Structure prediction request, 275 residues.
Amino acid sequence: MKRILARAGFWLVVALLLVYLLFPFYYAILTSLKGGSEVFVVSYWPDSWDFSNYVRVFSQQPFARNILNSVFVAGAVVAISLLLGLTAAFAFGRIRFRGRATLLLTILAVSMFPQVAVLSGLFELIRWLGLFNNLLGLVLSYMIFTLPFTVWVLTAFVRDLPKEVEEAALLDGASSWTLISQVFLPLLWPAMVATGLLAFIVAWNEFLFALTFTLSNDQRTVPVAIALITGGSEYELPWGNIMAASVIVTLPLIVIVLIFQRRLVAGLTAGAVKG
Prediction:
């Protein structure tokens, strides 16, 4: 009897967590399917399917271009972070040199500063480089968050790889790049997927830098585009449009997580248990 009650209590807690986590997104979908003043009517089941909000999101502003901007920025950030993170992790995890621990702590310390603290200095740097109102400026600024995390996580995984594999490759005459690309990379795929996905989510959702370093609509990413959505007229409230845009930009993240969920779990849990 106690075992049955324990299992029932466990599944009850799971159900409550699922409701707590999924209900805001579910209600956002309901609101996106309402038009006019119906968005202020509380209901938990769609009375009608009105897709006019989704149509207005794409017709009243260049939202498709904003989505492509976010895809480009997030994809570039992930690619550069993984490339630099993998090579840096090889150096920190396998090569002994003076100041290695200090340099690794310095890289981590960079990510500890709040965005506001580095905003003015980064703005001057991006303007000096001629990257203001340019997607490459966003890619450069987002590396402040994604690169330290990627380096730290991949360094931990590289340190846990068996040294016998590396020694065997070196005996066969493998160069450092061959060792990284053909020996370590296949073993690090779960960690690469996990860190790459987290970096993608960070870059996809970032708002402050995207708002500060972009000026025109055709250069904005989706978080800023959603924040600047307005109604079609002075008296029209944009809540339905905002909910529709939020659903549109959230669905890709859900799909990506579902596709890579096994590798994501393996990457996050690998190395947690040794022996």
The chain has a mean pLDDT of 83. The chain is about 75% helix and 0% strand. The CA atoms of residues 2 and 247 lie 42 Å apart. The domain at 61-228 is CATH 1.10.3720.10 (MetI-like fold).
